[in-house]
TrEMBL record:
Domain Amidohydrolase-related: 56-360
Chief site of localization: cytoplasm
Binding site for Zn(2+): 64, 66, 219, 293
Localisation per UniProt entry: Cytoplasm
Cofactor binding, note field: Binds 1 zinc or iron ion per subunit.
Record's keyword terms, sorted: Cytoplasm, Histidine metabolism, Hydrolase, Iron, Metal-binding, Zinc
Residue numbers binding Fe(3+): 64, 66, 219, 293
Pathways per UniProt: Amino-acid degradation; L-histidine degradation into L-glutamate; N-formimidoyl-L-glutamate from L-histidine: step 3/3
The name this protein goes by in its record: Imidazolonepropionase
Positions contributing to 4-imidazolone-5-propanoate binding: 73, 131, 158, 222, 298
Database matches in Pfam families: Amidohydro_1
Length: 382
């Protein structure tokens, strides 16, 4: 395998040490970071790339997406912009379109979105089932997702299918559906929210999934305060996602647990909610991740940079905190220590910005700054 030395890095974010190194270089070998140091001291390698003073940082780790779907919901979005509230009910529209699509169409759509994300610097992503909601359709979604990522989450408990009895559906999800899907996924998730699954129903699904050996994630506190955060912490979930409406007790619970608070600001903007209290969470000592939540209903974007920009401009995170949240903390939310940072030994997943500093992610909002991406040591975007 070819080794590469990247020199002339004007500003390097590795996360260890925290902060930014200037005039730096990196060596990539065997798909890993093999050396980090000053540009002048860089050793030789098979390939030498000088990035001309640009900033280099880890590839984004997007720990929350819903990419197995068909169709879009432009009409729902337009109605929302005209004043209609977002409700979980729109999920049923995508469920119908997804069930009607064949495997090739679902895989092609997922590939399109994964490529779009990669071109913008996302080198690791999680994605969920949840637009099938039958045993066969959830299993199919898990299999298709598994072609593209190791981080697949079972979200059979996304919505009670219209016309179905809720208790029977919960029994199906926690029983036959989980049995079928568990061998194909790493995680299980529940949409614990008014209009979706209540606390008891969520606990039933999550505890069944934990007994199968799956890691837990929770959609919680998206549309109002509720039991999601509390339940996620109680069950030791790796992450509770959304966290838009938090009580003081929720913030305290997150601060004293290993459950990551994953914030999805693009979703909150697209659904006209408040932005989550990222500053308060960090000040309290919680681990905060930023993710994109790409899905056709509440957040149809593959841009992690948009979340970083929003977190700095509107949620009062520093640039370093926001970049950490979208890389290293995303990896923590996936219980991974091989991605999201650029220490020696890390997976060689990185991006180059056409800017001298990560500050430009907030200073130049909306400008597509990622100009080159390496994944597992291979240059995949120029
Ligand atoms: O994370 N909140 C639940 N699930 C998705 C939205 C899905 C949809 O509206 O299609 C979310 O925002």
């Amino acid at each position: 395998m070819t080794s590469t030395v990247i020199t002339g890095i004007g500003e390097l974010t590795t996360h260890s040490p925290l902060g930014r190194l200037s005039d730096a270089a990196l060596v990539l070998a065997e798909g890993r970071v093999a050396w980090v140091g000053r540009s002048a001291d860089a050793p030789d390698a098979d390939v030498r790339v000088d990035v001309g003073g640009r900033a280099v940082l880890p590839g984004w780790v997007d720990s929350h997406t819903h990419l197995v779907f068909a169709g879009d919901r432009t009409a729902e979005f337009e109605a929302r912009m005209a004043g209609q509230p977002y409700t979980a009910g729109g999920i049923a529209t995508t469920v119908a379109a997804t069930r009607a699509a064949d495997d090739d169409a679902l895989a092609a759509n997922l590939r399109r979105l994964a490529d779009e994300a990669l071109a913008q610097g996302t080198t690791t992503f999680e994605t969920k089932t949840g637009y099938g909601l039958t045993v066969a359709d959830e299993l199919r979604a898990a299999r298709i997702a598994g072609v593209f990522t190791d981080e697949v989450t079972f979200l059979g408990a996304h919505l009670v299918p219209p016309g179905t009895d809720a208790d029977s559906y919960v029994a199906l999800v926690a029983g036959e559906m989980l049995d079928a899907v568990a061998p194909h996924v790493r995680w299980a998730d529940v949409f614990c929210e008014r209009g979706a699954f209540d606390e008891d129903q969520s606990r039933t699904v999550l505890t069944a999934a934990a007994r199968k050996g799956l890691g837990l994630r929770v959609h919680g506190n998206q549309l109002g305060e509720g039991p999601g955060v509390r339940l996620a912490v109680e069950l030791g979930a790796a992450s509770v996602d959304h966290c838009t409406y938090l009580s003081a007790a929720d913030v305290d619970a997150l601060a004293s647990s290993a459950t990551v608070a994953t914030l999805l600001p693009a979703c909150d903007l697209s659904t006209r909610q408040s932005l989550p209290p990222g500053r308060a969470l960090l000040d309290a000592g919680a681990t905060v991740a930023l993710a994109g939540n790409c899905n056709p209903g509440s957040s149809y974007t593959t841009s992690m940079a948009f979340g970083v920009t929003t977190a700095v401009l509107q949620m009062r995170l520093t640039v370093e905190e926001a970049v950490y949240a979208a890389t290293k903390a995303g990896a923590i939310a996936l219980r991974r220590d091989d991605v999201g940072h650029l220490d020696v030994g890390a997976r060689a997943d990185l991006q180059v910005l056409d800017a001298p500093s990560v500050t430009h992610l907030a200073y130049r909002p909306g400008v597509p700054l990622t100009v080159a991406v390496w994944q597992r040591g291979e240059r995949v975007v120029r």
